[in-house]
Amino acid sequence: MENVHILTQRVTARGDFMPFSAERYRISEQHNTHDLVTKLQTTLSIEGILTIFAEHAKQLINLSGLQFQSALGVSESVDSDTTHTPYSFDLDLESERLGQLIYFSQFPMGQAIETKLQQLHAALVYPLRNAIMYTRVLRLATKDALTGLNNRSQFNDSLAQRLERCRRQHRPFSLMLLDLDNFKQVNDNFGHKIGDDVLQEFANVLRNCVRGTDSIFRFGGDEFALLIDDPEFTTNKVIADRVMRLVSQSSIMAQYAVTSSIGFTLANNQDCENEVFARADKGLYRAKAAGRNCAKAY
Predict the structure, then answer these.
(1) Which residues are listed as membrane-spanning (predicted)?
(2) Nearest Cα to 280, choosing from 234, 232, 226?
(3) pTM score of the predicted model
């Protein structure tokens, strides 16, 4: 072993020693980069790409987490710990700004490591851009353009999945249908721009009323739906009361005299999609018949 020489690179002033065999690293570096590119091309998930890249980057840096911030929002690699010191890099491709890649590490990052990571970014940017483009197209197919909520197509898929889970795991859930009282008069009297403002405000109200396990959908017009994890009706009543309270406290809703009528039902493992929807719709009809601005179960 006396003829084996292990080199250590000193990270100037800011880091620790990084032990490696310099000759071995030079020989394998090109192969490793090619292997990284191959792995990155196996997925169109931004989170999946970050996870693959993070595993490779751990050869260079004691990495606790990896995050990517873009116009699409914030994505992270699996099991990211973002409580440590962040080190940010702008990612650009052919004059197109992709976003910002953020490494998290409890140890300082030296200039030599930064240079190596920037070289690796050349392997990352093309697969990442493809994933960004795919995510944008996917969101157009499943998201309502005005409010950013899930659309009717996504609702149909989600309802079917919830029912299947209910049958297999005996986990009941609730369907809540909501629409806006007096919304037609807003469009007729004040124009569609004001109507759009009201719809966006109601979408924000719904976001502030549900939990992370619940899902929100806009069918179109002033029709909305919630899928709620709830073994009884308790959560439905809490959410419905919260929706009506926040609507009453909204200045734009009050200005145009808009309220919400709500119907909900509890699904069971014998239901099909049409049966669940029909019951919730009957609950909504009851709320309308009771004078609107209220919630009724069926």
Answers:
(1) none
(2) 226
(3) 0.62
